[in-house]
short-chain-enoyl-CoA hydratase
Amino acid sequence: MSQVTLKIEEGIACISVVRPEALNALNREIVDEMDQLLDQVEKDDSARCLIFYSEKNFAAGADIKAMAECDEEGAKAFAFSPVYNKIADLPLPTIAAIEGYALGGGMELAMTCDIRIAGESAKMGFPEVTLGIFPGAGGTIRVPRAVGEAFAKELIFTGDAVSAQRALQMGLVNRVTADTDVYAEAEKMAKRIAKRGPVAIRMVKEVIRRGLEEPDQNRAIEIEAEQWARLFTTYDQKEGMKAFIEKRKPRFENR
Ligand code: CAA
């Protein structure tokens, strides 16, 4: 039976893990299912934003019971990084809506998203060292990039989970809401993004990624300028500016 669901409504896609008996711990089958659903999202021209949200608990990490007896080769086969990289590289914006526990591979999934929103009693962290391993699904790279080296090392070396407020102070999450409002808040933000020029949103996500990866700042600024100018070949740029001048809402067509 499927343990991952996808719904796409009014331009907002949502992927959810449904494995409440294990606090939505992630195993190979779940991550492979997610992989296939990502293809569906990418193919759906109406999708403007993707939310990852699972009821009660975002995900209590990779499935420890499934991993416990792995040897080195088995551990490599268990690794989630190829799918996580695919999420990080999706052209459309992604939001992690975090309720309850987001630990280990669960929090690493949240770290692949562009934006993170947490409920006030969410608990987030990287407890891998308590199990004799370390984060192995992009955490050692994405966490320091998000919060800086010192906070990343504190989180990863202690393995302690932090509260939503502490995560907010560190910059691990963008905002904190009431527990009951986590999905609604993510959906509200997704809808705001969905109203913006879709070509510009996809292009700016790519430009930000390339800028962060580009060691030469001047080259990064050149890339920005090239892509920015390219937008003036699009229908949506003409429509967006015309709508402003005519004092009406734009009708973007994603072209
Ligand atoms: N893997 C497998 N099963 C898990 C799990 C996990 N990561 N997390 C929770 N579960 C299961 C528990 O075994 C339990 O199942 P049973 O009833 O069959 O025993 C059920 O979910 C409920 O969990 P608890 O009884 O433990 O619930 P709790 O409220 O007392 O504690 C918790 C909650 C603090 C999150 C605790 O479950 C916990 O510490 N979980 C493990 C968290 C963790 O270490 N995650 C990192 C995994 S390693 C990883 O992610 C590697 C990577 O980099 C990819």
Q: What stands out?
A: The first helix runs from residue 28 to 43.
